[in-house]
Amino acid sequence: MNEAAVDITGLVKSYPGSESPAVAGIDLRVKAGAFFGLLGPNGAGKTTLISMMCGLLRPDAGSLRMAGMDIAARPNEVKQRIGVVPQDIALYPTLTARENLAYFGGMLGLSGARLRERVNWALETARLAQYAGVRVEVLSGGLKRRLSLVIGFIHEPEILLLDEPTVGIDPHSRLFIYESLRAMNAAGMTIIYTSHYMEEVEGLCREIAIIDQGRIIARGSLDDILAGGAGTGAVEIRSGEALPDGTLERITRLPGVRDVERSGKLLRLASDSPMDALPGVLALLRRDGVKVLSLSHGAANLEEVFLTLTGRGLRE
After folding, report:
1. If we measure between CA atoms, which residue out of 26, 4, 75, 10 comes closest to residue 211?
2. Which residue segments constitute the domains of the chain, with CATH numbers given?
């Protein structure tokens, strides 16, 4: 399928009192049937972007089309075609699992026999049938997450948006969510997935975008990004001894070296052209009497790519 499930051009959103926009001119196209990961550190703009995709926030500028429709012009129709699983569990605690499903299903346009059918389907799918008459406030966190998930696609949406859906749940519920999403995607549903758990994004998503400071800083297939195709230029050099005084500073001044970090005997370099920068780095280390034990180019995992692109400092 080549048509776009999500088509975003020049999207901008600012909040009053903020010095910079939360979303600063994002262009993004996600084809129908994709399992797409949207990553970024805290405050990067992910939740703002998801909120605009859901129609909860209106962009300040740019265009946003979901399922082929302009969300600003046809918000109600778009909302019937998308499903949302929020980061914070949004259920009515004094209602039962069945009552929550019936309420949200009705809000999403279901009624009568079709609504009853989908409620029963959701209870069976989430393995919640035995809890159908139990009030949500007494359910475990994992059961609430499973209920929240099936509410997101009770109306069989074309596009499912998930914002940190596995936060704070047990391994069995997490596995259930993974299996359910893979099955839905295999059946043709487009999935947009945000998470801070890099290993689950690697296991689920075929395409990824990394957002920081309101802009997309990397975009491509998982294989391309891990191979360095997103421009991370990650190089790791492990030495047999600590670096002599002045070596690190001299490396930072070498042509092609964008950034250098040292952690004990491990040296991490970022470069836009690592193969051009490496001969100078290795020659300098040899002159300074540093024995190189190992060298790797590219990132071994998505977390390393993420940290290389967004930095290793703590975010608020």
Report:
1. 26
2. 4-226 (3.40.50.300), 234-297 (3.30.70.100)
